[in-house]
User: What shape does this take?
Amino acid sequence: MDLLLASTSPIRGTLLANAGVPYSAVRPEVDEAAVKAGFAGSDAGLATALAGAKALSVSRSRPDALVIGSDSIVSVEGRRFSKPGGRGQAAEHLRFFSGRSMQLTSAVALTCGETVEWRHAAEARLQVRPLTDSFIEAYLDADWPEVSYCVGVFRLEGPGVQLFSAIEGDHFTILGLPLLPLLGALRERGMLAA
Amino acid sequence: MDLLLASTSPIRGTLLANAGVPYSAVRPEVDEAAVKAGFAGSDAGLATALAGAKALSVSRSRPDALVIGSDSIVSVEGRRFSKPGGRGQAAEHLRFFSGRSMQLTSAVALTCGETVEWRHAAEARLQVRPLTDSFIEAYLDADWPEVSYCVGVFRLEGPGVQLFSAIEGDHFTILGLPLLPLLGALRERGMLAA
Assistant: This one.
Protein backbone atom coordinates (compact mmCIF):
# COMPACT_ATOMS: atom_id res chain seq x y z
CA MET A 1 0.00 0.00 0.00
CA ASP A 2 1.33 3.45 -0.89
CA LEU A 3 1.97 5.98 1.85
CA LEU A 4 1.16 9.59 0.97
CA LEU A 5 1.99 12.74 2.92
CA ALA A 6 -0.75 15.33 2.44
CA SER A 7 1.68 18.21 2.87
CA THR A 8 4.23 20.12 0.85
CA SER A 9 5.99 21.35 4.00
CA PRO A 10 9.69 20.64 3.47
CA ILE A 11 10.33 19.98 7.17
CA ARG A 12 7.62 17.32 7.51
CA GLY A 13 8.90 15.52 4.43
CA THR A 14 12.45 15.72 5.75
CA LEU A 15 11.40 14.22 9.09
CA LEU A 16 9.82 11.21 7.37
CA ALA A 17 12.69 10.78 4.91
CA ASN A 18 15.34 11.00 7.65
CA ALA A 19 13.46 8.39 9.67
CA GLY A 20 13.65 6.07 6.67
CA VAL A 21 9.93 6.08 5.87
CA PRO A 22 9.15 5.78 2.12
CA TYR A 23 6.38 8.20 1.11
CA SER A 24 5.23 10.54 -1.64
CA ALA A 25 4.11 14.11 -0.98
CA VAL A 26 0.80 15.41 -2.35
CA ARG A 27 -0.63 18.90 -1.93
CA PRO A 28 -3.84 18.84 0.16
CA GLU A 29 -6.82 20.94 -0.90
CA VAL A 30 -8.34 22.45 2.23
CA ASP A 31 -9.65 25.96 2.85
CA GLU A 32 -7.77 26.38 6.14
CA ALA A 33 -9.08 29.88 6.77
CA ALA A 34 -12.68 28.64 6.50
CA VAL A 35 -12.04 25.74 8.89
CA LYS A 36 -10.34 28.06 11.39
CA ALA A 37 -13.05 30.72 11.16
CA GLY A 38 -15.77 28.20 11.98
CA PHE A 39 -13.95 26.53 14.86
CA ALA A 40 -14.67 27.32 18.51
CA GLY A 41 -12.70 24.56 20.29
CA SER A 42 -9.16 24.08 21.59
CA ASP A 43 -5.92 24.34 19.64
CA ALA A 44 -5.59 20.53 19.80
CA GLY A 45 -9.12 20.14 18.44
CA LEU A 46 -8.44 22.59 15.60
CA ALA A 47 -5.08 21.05 14.69
CA THR A 48 -6.66 17.58 14.68
CA ALA A 49 -9.57 18.76 12.52
CA LEU A 50 -7.18 20.35 10.02
CA ALA A 51 -4.86 17.32 9.98
CA GLY A 52 -7.84 15.07 9.23
CA ALA A 53 -9.28 17.42 6.60
CA LYS A 54 -5.94 17.65 4.77
CA ALA A 55 -5.49 13.86 4.74
CA LEU A 56 -9.09 13.25 3.60
CA SER A 57 -8.73 15.79 0.78
CA VAL A 58 -6.05 13.48 -0.65
CA SER A 59 -7.34 10.05 0.34
CA ARG A 60 -10.77 10.55 -1.26
CA SER A 61 -9.12 10.49 -4.68
CA ARG A 62 -6.48 7.91 -3.68
CA PRO A 63 -8.50 5.29 -1.71
CA ASP A 64 -5.75 2.73 -2.46
CA ALA A 65 -3.27 4.65 -0.25
CA LEU A 66 -2.75 5.40 3.43
CA VAL A 67 -2.55 9.18 3.82
CA ILE A 68 -0.81 11.24 6.51
CA GLY A 69 -2.23 14.69 7.29
CA SER A 70 -0.82 17.12 9.82
CA ASP A 71 -1.23 20.64 11.11
CA SER A 72 0.29 22.94 13.70
CA ILE A 73 -1.22 25.80 15.69
CA VAL A 74 0.77 28.47 17.50
CA SER A 75 -0.87 30.53 20.21
CA VAL A 76 0.44 33.03 22.72
CA GLU A 77 -1.75 34.17 25.60
CA GLY A 78 -4.79 32.73 23.85
CA ARG A 79 -4.18 34.56 20.57
CA ARG A 80 -3.69 32.26 17.57
CA PHE A 81 -1.06 33.26 15.03
CA SER A 82 -0.85 32.56 11.31
CA LYS A 83 2.19 32.81 9.07
CA PRO A 84 3.34 36.43 8.90
CA GLY A 85 2.02 38.37 5.90
CA GLY A 86 5.32 40.18 5.41
CA ARG A 87 8.53 41.14 7.17
CA GLY A 88 6.86 43.99 9.05
CA GLN A 89 4.21 41.69 10.45
CA ALA A 90 6.88 39.11 11.31
CA ALA A 91 8.66 41.73 13.44
CA GLU A 92 5.31 42.65 15.04
CA HIS A 93 4.65 39.00 15.92
CA LEU A 94 8.14 38.64 17.40
CA ARG A 95 7.67 41.79 19.52
CA PHE A 96 4.44 40.27 20.84
CA PHE A 97 6.11 36.90 21.54
CA SER A 98 9.02 38.56 23.41
CA GLY A 99 9.14 37.42 27.04
CA ARG A 100 5.98 35.32 26.66
CA SER A 101 5.22 31.61 26.61
CA MET A 102 4.31 30.14 23.22
CA GLN A 103 2.04 27.12 22.96
CA LEU A 104 2.64 24.99 19.90
CA THR A 105 0.19 22.20 19.09
CA SER A 106 0.72 19.68 16.31
CA ALA A 107 -1.66 16.99 15.16
CA VAL A 108 -1.30 14.09 12.78
CA ALA A 109 -3.99 11.90 11.20
CA LEU A 110 -4.01 8.76 9.07
CA THR A 111 -6.84 8.32 6.60
CA CYS A 112 -7.87 5.68 4.11
CA GLY A 113 -10.63 6.51 1.63
CA GLU A 114 -13.34 8.34 3.58
CA THR A 115 -12.16 7.10 6.99
CA VAL A 116 -9.95 8.74 9.60
CA GLU A 117 -8.19 5.63 10.92
CA TRP A 118 -6.03 7.24 13.58
CA ARG A 119 -5.15 10.63 14.97
CA HIS A 120 -2.93 12.16 17.61
CA ALA A 121 -2.26 15.66 18.95
CA ALA A 122 0.58 16.86 21.19
CA GLU A 123 1.51 20.19 22.74
CA ALA A 124 4.79 21.89 23.48
CA ARG A 125 5.63 25.08 25.38
CA LEU A 126 8.39 27.41 24.32
CA GLN A 127 9.49 30.27 26.54
CA VAL A 128 10.49 33.24 24.39
CA ARG A 129 13.24 35.29 26.03
CA PRO A 130 13.00 39.09 26.07
CA LEU A 131 14.01 40.16 22.55
CA THR A 132 15.48 43.57 21.78
CA ASP A 133 14.38 45.39 18.62
CA SER A 134 17.95 45.20 17.31
CA PHE A 135 17.98 41.44 17.85
CA ILE A 136 14.69 41.08 15.98
CA GLU A 137 16.01 43.06 13.00
CA ALA A 138 19.30 41.10 12.90
CA TYR A 139 17.35 37.84 13.25
CA LEU A 140 15.10 38.68 10.31
CA ASP A 141 18.12 39.84 8.29
CA ALA A 142 19.57 36.36 8.87
CA ASP A 143 16.50 34.18 8.37
CA TRP A 144 14.03 36.06 6.16
CA PRO A 145 12.29 34.93 3.95
CA GLU A 146 12.78 31.38 5.26
CA VAL A 147 10.74 32.09 8.41
CA SER A 148 7.92 33.64 6.38
CA TYR A 149 6.66 30.08 5.82
CA CYS A 150 6.64 29.34 9.57
CA VAL A 151 3.81 29.96 11.97
CA GLY A 152 5.66 31.28 15.03
CA VAL A 153 8.28 32.99 12.81
CA PHE A 154 11.04 30.52 13.70
CA ARG A 155 12.88 27.49 12.39
CA LEU A 156 14.15 25.57 15.41
CA GLU A 157 16.73 23.91 13.18
CA GLY A 158 18.07 27.41 12.33
CA PRO A 159 18.71 30.72 14.15
CA GLY A 160 15.17 30.42 15.57
CA VAL A 161 16.58 28.48 18.50
CA GLN A 162 18.04 31.81 19.69
CA LEU A 163 14.51 33.06 20.45
CA PHE A 164 14.00 30.68 23.35
CA SER A 165 15.24 30.35 26.92
CA ALA A 166 13.46 27.06 27.62
CA ILE A 167 11.55 24.42 25.68
CA GLU A 168 9.22 21.79 27.10
CA GLY A 169 7.79 19.10 24.91
CA ASP A 170 8.59 16.82 22.05
CA HIS A 171 10.98 18.13 19.40
CA PHE A 172 9.14 16.53 16.48
CA THR A 173 5.87 18.05 17.68
CA ILE A 174 7.56 21.45 17.59
CA LEU A 175 8.80 20.78 14.04
CA GLY A 176 5.18 20.08 13.04
CA LEU A 177 4.76 16.30 13.11
CA PRO A 178 4.44 14.10 16.24
CA LEU A 179 6.80 11.54 14.71
CA LEU A 180 7.08 8.83 17.40
CA PRO A 181 3.31 8.19 17.71
CA LEU A 182 3.05 8.28 13.90
CA LEU A 183 5.82 5.68 13.50
CA GLY A 184 4.01 3.48 16.04
CA ALA A 185 0.73 3.78 14.12
CA LEU A 186 2.52 2.94 10.85
CA ARG A 187 4.13 -0.15 12.45
CA GLU A 188 0.73 -1.29 13.77
CA ARG A 189 -0.57 -1.12 10.18
CA GLY A 190 2.36 -3.09 8.75
CA MET A 191 3.68 -0.02 6.88
CA LEU A 192 7.03 -0.16 8.74
CA ALA A 193 9.14 -3.10 9.92
CA ALA A 194 8.89 -3.75 13.66
CA MET B 1 37.21 36.99 21.54
CA ASP B 2 37.33 33.76 19.53
CA LEU B 3 34.91 30.96 20.32
CA LEU B 4 36.32 27.45 19.99
CA LEU B 5 34.47 24.15 20.09
CA ALA B 6 36.66 21.47 21.67
CA SER B 7 35.05 18.72 19.63
CA THR B 8 35.25 17.24 16.17
CA SER B 9 31.76 15.74 16.48
CA PRO B 10 29.89 16.74 13.31
CA ILE B 11 26.54 16.96 15.07
CA ARG B 12 27.73 19.40 17.77
CA GLY B 13 29.31 21.62 15.14
CA THR B 14 26.13 21.50 13.06
CA LEU B 15 24.00 22.50 16.06
CA LEU B 16 26.13 25.61 16.66
CA ALA B 17 26.35 26.50 12.98
CA ASN B 18 22.58 26.11 12.46
CA ALA B 19 21.94 28.33 15.48
CA GLY B 20 24.07 31.03 13.84
CA VAL B 21 26.95 30.89 16.33
CA PRO B 22 30.37 31.58 14.76
CA TYR B 23 33.00 29.14 16.07
CA SER B 24 36.03 27.08 15.09
CA ALA B 25 36.39 23.40 15.93
CA VAL B 26 39.56 22.08 17.60
CA ARG B 27 40.29 18.48 18.54
CA PRO B 28 40.55 18.08 22.35
CA GLU B 29 43.32 15.95 23.82
CA VAL B 30 41.83 13.99 26.70
CA ASP B 31 42.33 10.34 27.66
CA GLU B 32 38.61 9.63 28.06
CA ALA B 33 39.11 6.00 29.04
CA ALA B 34 41.41 7.02 31.89
CA VAL B 35 38.96 9.65 33.16
CA LYS B 36 36.07 7.15 33.02
CA ALA B 37 38.05 4.37 34.71
CA GLY B 38 38.90 6.59 37.67
CA PHE B 39 35.38 8.02 38.13
CA ALA B 40 32.96 6.75 40.77
CA GLY B 41 30.20 9.40 40.58
CA SER B 42 27.01 9.91 38.61
CA ASP B 43 26.63 10.10 34.84
CA ALA B 44 26.07 13.86 35.16
CA GLY B 45 29.25 14.18 37.21
CA LEU B 46 31.26 12.19 34.69
CA ALA B 47 29.86 14.02 31.65
CA THR B 48 30.59 17.35 33.34
CA ALA B 49 34.14 16.28 34.23
CA LEU B 50 34.80 15.16 30.66
CA ALA B 51 33.25 18.32 29.16
CA GLY B 52 35.49 20.46 31.37
CA ALA B 53 38.61 18.36 30.67
CA LYS B 54 38.06 18.57 26.91
CA ALA B 55 37.59 22.34 27.00
CA LEU B 56 40.62 22.87 29.27
CA SER B 57 42.81 20.74 26.99
CA VAL B 58 42.20 23.35 24.31
CA SER B 59 41.96 26.55 26.35
CA ARG B 60 45.35 26.04 28.06
CA SER B 61 47.06 26.64 24.74
CA ARG B 62 44.50 29.23 23.55
CA PRO B 63 43.99 31.45 26.65
CA ASP B 64 42.76 34.24 24.33
CA ALA B 65 39.64 32.22 23.42
CA LEU B 66 36.44 31.06 25.08
CA VAL B 67 36.26 27.28 24.70
CA ILE B 68 33.20 25.01 24.65
CA GLY B 69 33.64 21.41 25.79
CA SER B 70 30.95 18.78 25.88
CA ASP B 71 30.38 15.11 26.52
CA SER B 72 27.55 12.60 26.55
CA ILE B 73 27.04 9.43 28.58
CA VAL B 74 24.58 6.68 27.73
CA SER B 75 23.54 4.20 30.39
CA VAL B 76 20.89 1.51 30.52
CA GLU B 77 19.99 -0.12 33.81
CA GLY B 78 23.11 1.33 35.40
CA ARG B 79 25.47 -0.02 32.74
CA ARG B 80 27.43 2.64 30.85
CA PHE B 81 27.93 2.13 27.14
CA SER B 82 30.74 3.30 24.87
CA LYS B 83 30.72 3.53 21.07
CA PRO B 84 30.38 0.03 19.62
CA GLY B 85 33.70 -1.59 18.66
CA GLY B 86 32.22 -3.14 15.52
CA ARG B 87 28.94 -4.09 13.89
CA GLY B 88 28.65 -7.28 15.96
CA GLN B 89 28.96 -5.31 19.18
CA ALA B 90 26.50 -2.70 17.89
CA ALA B 91 23.90 -5.46 17.40
CA GLU B 92 24.70 -6.77 20.90
CA HIS B 93 24.16 -3.31 22.40
CA LEU B 94 20.86 -2.91 20.52
CA ARG B 95 19.63 -6.32 21.76
CA PHE B 96 20.44 -5.19 25.31
CA PHE B 97 18.66 -1.84 24.80
CA SER B 98 15.54 -3.54 23.40
CA GLY B 99 12.49 -2.87 25.59
CA ARG B 100 14.57 -0.92 28.14
CA SER B 101 14.82 2.71 29.17
CA MET B 102 17.98 4.53 28.07
CA GLN B 103 19.35 7.42 30.12
CA LEU B 104 21.30 9.95 28.08
CA THR B 105 23.25 12.65 29.90
CA SER B 106 25.00 15.54 28.15
CA ALA B 107 27.17 18.19 29.72
CA VAL B 108 28.68 21.38 28.38
CA ALA B 109 31.42 23.58 29.86
CA LEU B 110 32.92 26.96 29.00
CA THR B 111 36.57 27.51 29.87
CA CYS B 112 39.01 30.38 29.53
CA GLY B 113 42.69 29.69 30.17
CA GLU B 114 42.88 27.46 33.25
CA THR B 115 39.38 28.34 34.49
CA VAL B 116 36.06 26.52 34.06
CA GLU B 117 33.77 29.57 33.82
CA TRP B 118 30.44 27.76 33.47
CA ARG B 119 29.02 24.28 33.16
CA HIS B 120 25.69 22.58 32.78
CA ALA B 121 24.44 19.01 32.60
CA ALA B 122 21.03 17.71 31.52
CA GLU B 123 19.44 14.28 31.27
CA ALA B 124 16.97 12.71 28.88
CA ARG B 125 15.16 9.37 28.93
CA LEU B 126 14.47 7.36 25.80
CA GLN B 127 12.23 4.31 25.89
CA VAL B 128 13.53 1.71 23.46
CA ARG B 129 10.70 -0.35 21.99
CA PRO B 130 11.05 -4.14 21.72
CA LEU B 131 13.32 -4.71 18.70
CA THR B 132 13.27 -7.91 16.65
CA ASP B 133 16.57 -9.37 15.43
CA SER B 134 15.47 -8.82 11.84
CA PHE B 135 14.76 -5.13 12.61
CA ILE B 136 18.21 -4.76 14.17
CA GLU B 137 19.92 -6.24 11.10
CA ALA B 138 17.92 -4.10 8.67
CA TYR B 139 18.58 -1.03 10.84
CA LEU B 140 22.34 -1.64 10.79
CA ASP B 141 22.22 -2.35 7.04
CA ALA B 142 20.66 1.10 6.66
CA ASP B 143 22.77 3.15 9.09
CA TRP B 144 26.14 1.41 9.52
CA PRO B 145 28.88 2.68 9.74
CA GLU B 146 27.32 6.08 10.56
CA VAL B 147 26.08 4.86 13.96
CA SER B 148 29.49 3.39 14.82
CA TYR B 149 30.44 6.92 15.94
CA CYS B 150 27.44 7.17 18.25
CA VAL B 151 27.26 6.08 21.86
CA GLY B 152 23.81 4.49 22.03
CA VAL B 153 24.08 3.27 18.41
CA PHE B 154 21.56 5.76 17.05
CA ARG B 155 21.30 9.04 15.17
CA LEU B 156 18.03 10.65 16.18
CA GLU B 157 18.17 12.73 13.00
CA GLY B 158 18.25 9.45 11.02
CA PRO B 159 16.61 5.99 11.17
CA GLY B 160 17.59 5.88 14.87
CA VAL B 161 14.27 7.53 15.70
CA GLN B 162 12.66 4.18 14.83
CA LEU B 163 14.26 2.63 17.94
CA PHE B 164 12.09 4.58 20.37
CA SER B 165 8.49 4.54 21.52
CA ALA B 166 8.80 7.61 23.75
CA ILE B 167 11.33 10.35 24.47
CA GLU B 168 11.43 12.63 27.49
CA GLY B 169 13.87 15.47 27.67
CA ASP B 170 15.53 18.15 25.64
CA HIS B 171 16.28 17.34 22.00
CA PHE B 172 19.62 19.16 21.94
CA THR B 173 20.73 17.30 25.07
CA ILE B 174 19.99 14.04 23.23
CA LEU B 175 22.02 15.23 20.24
CA GLY B 176 24.95 15.82 22.62
CA LEU B 177 24.91 19.54 23.46
CA PRO B 178 22.47 21.29 25.83
CA LEU B 179 22.12 24.17 23.39
CA LEU B 180 19.64 26.54 25.07
CA PRO B 181 21.61 26.89 28.34
CA LEU B 182 24.81 27.27 26.29
CA LEU B 183 23.31 30.06 24.17
CA GLY B 184 22.23 31.80 27.39
CA ALA B 185 25.76 31.54 28.82
CA LEU B 186 27.22 32.91 25.56
CA ARG B 187 24.79 35.86 25.61
CA GLU B 188 25.72 36.61 29.24
CA ARG B 189 29.36 36.81 28.15
CA GLY B 190 28.63 39.11 25.21
CA MET B 191 29.51 36.40 22.66
CA LEU B 192 26.01 36.52 21.11
CA ALA B 193 23.61 39.41 20.49
CA ALA B 194 20.74 39.57 22.98
